[in-house]
Amino acid sequence: MALMTSDMIHPTAVIGPEVELGAEVSIGPYAILEGPIRIGSGCVIEAHACLSGPLEMGEGNFVGHGAVLGKPPQHKGYRGEETWLRIGSHNTFREHVTIHRGTVEGGGVTLVGDRNLLMVNSHVGHDARVGNGCTLVNNALVAGHCILMDQCILSGHAAIQQRVRVGRLAMLGGLGSTTKDIPPFILQQGYNSVVGLNLVGLRRAGMSSATIDALRTMYRIVYLERCPLPQALDRAEAELGSVPEVREYLEFVRESKLGINRSRFVRGTHVRNDD
Fold it and tell me: Domain named UDP N-acetylglucosamine O-acyltransferase C-terminal: which ranges (predicted)?
């Protein structure tokens, strides 16, 4: 790692002695980098952003104006222990995004993978795990200890409570919130309400028509036939278990500690189908 020799660093930026910068890192006016920080090559840190270590960041990341990455966790039990924020490569953190370091209770680290897009004012809490290719739209809120699996989407003003998992290619619609896990491929809207499959996301990801048809059948069995969940899962496995995406869904649900939502909106009416 190179040490602050680039002419791409604005003279008003404040960079602490423990900061290590890769090649061709751009740092804008009045940005603050404090504590033990390692920044990979080709990163862009815009004006007034604040990065606090311990923090590690891969290459090619964009940190927008006023973003705050690596501040201590918002947790009453935090007593100043050394914890971390670790970020992969080629992520975009737009204006005023906030991500906090982990807690000792949660393993000491908040993790963000690669190629994620966090839009304006979105927040990722302490000890969260964000996979690859996820999208958090403006003002989306992720509480502590949550897990976002690859390519999931949280729309504008969506919120998930502590320890919730959001499965691969799942989506929580705008203004939606959830207190339970959202399995892979599922679309939720409103409060704890399932709408259907995230069909747009599945097609954009290149999923085949045959696989989508299998997921449609699985959805009907689990969500529409009002069968107790364990029996519904067993039936879906017996009929569709040869489809990898169906197995992925079933494994996710069976591993869930918070449970999943099966309440639905049907023509404006809230229909409950919970066990």
Answer: 181-260
